[in-house]
Amino acid sequence: MNTSRNTPGHKPMSRVLALAASALLVGGAVACAPPEKDNSNAQTESGVNAAAATSAQDFGGMDGLIEAAKAEGELNVIALPPDWANYGEIITAFSEKYGIKVNSAQPDASSQDEINAANQQKGRSTAPDVFDLGQSVALANSAMFAPYKVETFDDIPVAFKDPDGTWVNDYGGYMSIGFDTSKVPPVTRVDDLLKPEYRGKVALNGDPTQAGAAFSGVLMVALSQGGSADDIAPGVEFFGKLKQAGNFLPVDPTPATIESGQTPVVIDWNYTNSAQTAKLPSWTVLVPPDQAVAGYYYQAINKDAPHPAAARLWQEFLYSDEGQNLYAKGGVRPVRADNMLADGTLDSAVAAALPVVDGPVTVPTPEQTEAASKYLAENWAAAVG
């Protein structure tokens, strides 16, 4: 469940998330490491430098890209839990469609863990080919990304992509509180979490200095305490109070901890929390209506990807109609949702299941995220340590 994938991770709607593009302004080394490998000048049989390709046209079109990716034969992904944004089905569909083996490492890792792995394994065949990151970590490490424009690039709203395709938002959702009604009283608002009935029961999905889900969770709490995207301090103070009350549970939640009852209250993305309802009928998900926080994850190619063609084909798949519908099936809002809904390519059944929030929605800008991240780095450990 970690998101951020932000969770250490790693993320009800009768219509597509009411998040108009104008409102959503963007805002471990392996013990026996394989030999180092330099793909910076690797070329396909047709002479294409896959690591420098900025579109499928550099391969002569999609057929050429597919051929080059199949020749590589593998793709390394990281921090993609199977039950997070439907990545389990997405990985299987990609692998079966193209006959490419997908190596999924550290599924419960955080966004920062992804970057750390890329740095530690740079030049090795085990390094991540692609990233799926929370905003703060993505924007702080964009120099590590390779620019690439998928075929549907023009269909992605301007607010959700770098002009050169260095990063592109892939899916989004709302921050929420999930809780097991068989273990705790129903949560109706954030302040309920301070009550003695929740002693030792409130978990946050990850460390907010490293994981996007946890960062957004602290922001949601900050809004409930009079804070804002410009002032996350009240959120940190609230978690300090949770700690003092004995209610904060310093455990990274997973589907297993939820099913076992170890983490009966979890602050995480709505789609990650909602995924638990199929296994645990008593699990309920609340998106606080007056403190709605929305966010998108950032998709990027590692510029030092050991499988540069497969990395680019993965991007093409994720932003295709097929990939976007698979995201939607996982309860997230795919970045092309509005345009796909308009042209009839968004699956109506999954679109109807996406959550709707009526009211103000907070989406921090990159500048607000940077300032809040700095505050968290300086104050979070002291508050909950």
Topology, element by element:
Blueprint: H1 62-72, E1 74-78, H2 87-98, E2 101-105, H3 111-120, E3 130-133, H4 135-140, E4 145-146, E5 168-180, E6 202-204, H5 212-224, H6 233-245, H7 255-260, E7 265-269, H8 270-274, E8 283-286, E9 292-302, H9 308-318, H10 321-329, E10 333-334, H11 337-343, H12 348-353, E11 361-362, H13 366-384
Helix pairs in contact: 1-9, 5-6, 6-13
Quick summary of this structure?
The protein is an alpha/beta fold and 385 residues long.
Overall spatial form: globular
Query: What does the average pLDDT come to?
Result: 88
Rg of Cα set: 20 Å
Low-confidence stretches: 1-35
Distance between the termini: 23 Å
* Largest sheet composition: 9 strands, mixed
Q: Please name the CATH architecture of the largest domain.
A: 3-Layer(aba) Sandwich
Protein name: Extracellular solute-binding protein
Region (Disordered): 105-127
Keywords: Signal
GO molecular function: thiamine binding; thiamine pyrophosphate binding
